[in-house]
Design a protein that fits this description.
Length: about 200
């Protein structure tokens, strides 16, 4: 596959301007069993998907700046007024008013803990994480929701104190820019490109 003429996306006057190639087709190959019997055919293709973050863009952009943003209901008439949410929610699920951004970085550094965890050999993130993958559901004091992530170092335990780390060198602007390590981990032990 050639990477020449790879597609690019620019925003001009508030609109996406897409140019170049985003889809490459490769020849089909037969799939045969040991005796040569045709079982099927491959249908390989390379596609680039364009995802818009919309109102959630501040969450992903701030991960690259080592900040963890959440939101809270700012409607005093709402039954859940003041409820804090992470992952980032643009609108309150109860009153549907626009939520207010809150920086949860320090709260996460002081009081995050593993609520539940799962260890697996496969991930939905294109299998880019080293296996076994230690997915953790992280809870924060005073936050209504639980954030799913992954533990970069150590073995998870329910109740274990963890701190966030951020991929600030060459960020992907995805949830992969956020990971967790046990509290007390030293900076020299962090994965390459990550910092506190």
């Amino acid at each position: 596959m050639t990477t020449q003429n790879r597609g690019t996306v620019k925003v001009e006057n508030g609109r996406y301007r897409v140019t170049g190639n985003f889809h490459y087709i490769y020849p089909n190959d037969p799939i045969r069993d040991e005796s040569g019997k045709l079982l099927g055919v491959t249908n390989p293709a390379d596609m680039t998907h364009i995802h818009s973050y919309g109102g959630e863009a501040p969450f992903f952009e701030n991960l690259s700046n080592a900040r963890l943003l959440g939101t809270k209901c700012a409607n005093p008439k709402c039954e859940t007024f003041g409820s804090i949410y992470i992952p980032y929610r643009i609108h309150c699920p109860d009153c549907l008013m626009r939520n207010e951004e809150v920086d949860l970085t320090e709260l996460a550094r002081k009081g995050a803990s593993v609520h539940t965890f799962m260890i697996t050999e496969r991930t939905g993130a294109f299998n880019t994480l080293e296996t076994p993958i230690r997915f953790v559901n992280v809870e924060f004091e005073g936050v209504s929701t639980i954030l799913m992530g992954y533990l970069s170092i150590g073995e998870p335990k329910i109740g274990m104190k963890v701190v966030p780390i951020f991929q600030t060198k060459n960020p992907t602007f995805t949830i992969m820019d956020l990971s967790w390590v046990p509290a007390g981990t030293e900076e020299k032990d962090l994965p390459e490109g990550f910092s506190f």
